[in-house]
Amino acid sequence: MAKVKSVRTIKVSKENKARLAKLFGCTERMVYKALCFESQTLLARKIQHVARQEMGGWVEAAVPEDEIFYDTMDSGERFMRQYFNNGAVLEVSLTTGEGVVRFKGSPRHRYEEVLVRDIPTIQNYARNLK
């Protein structure tokens, strides 16, 4: 599986993007590259600063689809949870080894013992639910 990184973007209105291009005497493409952190030149950093400090811009981060969270409950039970864009959730108890795939809140498939080698197959199952 290819490594996917978080994508950060400074969000500002379309009008403010045009204002930034005019203010700094650059193209809208340069503003786009600065706001998406694709460029870190001095000009890009100035654009980022003005967008956030003077134009009400904020940084948004998109988390990769395959982000996995590890939780420990008050009871001490540990879980691995993976959330998918289609609404599916893969939940595996690291304490008992049991797993369940939920789709939009309802259990779709239960697993008695999840082995590491089984996880990619279970992930594909969860990812393809409709």
Describe the 3D structure.
This protein has about 130 residues and is an alpha+beta fold. Helices cover about 30% and strands about 30% of the residues. The chain is built from four helices and seven strands. It has helices at about 15-25, 30-35, 40-55, 120-125; strands at about 5-10, 60, 70, 80-85, 90-95, 100-105, 105-110. The chain has a five-stranded antiparallel sheet, with helices on one face. Helix 1 packs across helix 3 (about 40-55) and helix 2 (about 30-35) packs across helix 3. The longest helix is centred in the middle third of the chain and has 12 residues, at about 40-55. It starts with 6 loop residues before the first strand and ends with a helix. The model has no long low-confidence stretch (mean pLDDT about 90).
Task: Name the average pLDDT.
Answer: 90
Spatial order of the strands forming the largest sheet: 3-4-5-6-7
Q: Could you give the count of β-strands?
A: 7
Question: Which stretches are poorly predicted, pLDDT < 50 over at least 5 residues?
Answer: none
User: Given the structure, what is the number of helices?
Assistant: 4
Helix content: 25-40%
Note the quaternary state here.
single chain
Outline the biggest β-sheet: 5 strands, antiparallel
| Backbone shape | elongated
Structural class: alpha+beta
Structural Rg: 21 Å
Order of helices and strands: EHHHEEEEEEH
Give the percentage of residues in beta strands: 25-35%
How far is the first residue's CA from the last residue's CA? 22 Å
